[in-house]
Design a protein that fits this description.
The protein has eight helices and five strands. It is an alpha/beta fold. It has one domain: 5'-nuclease (Rossmann fold). Strands 3-2-1-4-5 form a five-stranded parallel sheet. α1 crosses α3 and α6 packs across α7. The chain is globular. It starts with a strand and ends in a 5-residue tail after the last helix. The mean pLDDT is 91.
Length: 139
């Protein structure tokens, strides 16, 4: 199942061993993200390292491990879609994720960003939704 993964899920997985890390490694999902995700992650790199209490090297290793299960789509592939949908979206940082979701015909976007809930293009999925979809929910 194709799911777009938002940077806040990667950041959460970098900060601590969690349900989010477990979901990212679940082979049930085919995770996809725009290359813009690296800009957002690098923006918070120092904060992530401090919160996670890890070294820069450990950060890089963990980031590489997490991205083993994520297909990254280049801007050249989705930029035409951004032009088509930009008037419908409030937060410009959401545009690459929505464009990639449309391009790849994804089921939804896995994010805990409340701004995504304002858009009416695709379903937004939380950790609980992801666990329910994969059949691993305890609820």
């Amino acid at each position: 199942m194709k799911i777009i993964i938002d940077s806040n899920r990667i950041i959460a997985a970098l900060i601590k061993e969690s349900t989010t890390r477990s979901i990212i490694s679940d082979q049930f999902f085919e995770f996809i993200s725009p290359d813009f995700i690296f800009t957002e992650i690098r923006k918070y790199e120092e904060d992530i390292i401090k919160k996670a209490k890890i070294t820069k090297n450990e950060f890089e290793i963990l980031l590489a491990i997490l991205f083993e299960n994520i297909e990254v789509i280049s801007k050249e592939e989705y930029e035409k879609i951004i032009i088509e949908i930009k008037e419908k979206i409030e937060d410009p940082k959401d545009l690459p994720y929505l464009a990639v979701a449309i391009l790849t015909d994804s089921y939804g976007i896995w994010s805990h960003d409340p701004d995504f809930s304002k858009q009416k293009i695709l379903r937004i999925l939380t950790n609980i939704d992801m666990l329910n979809i994969s059949g691993k929910s305890k609820f």
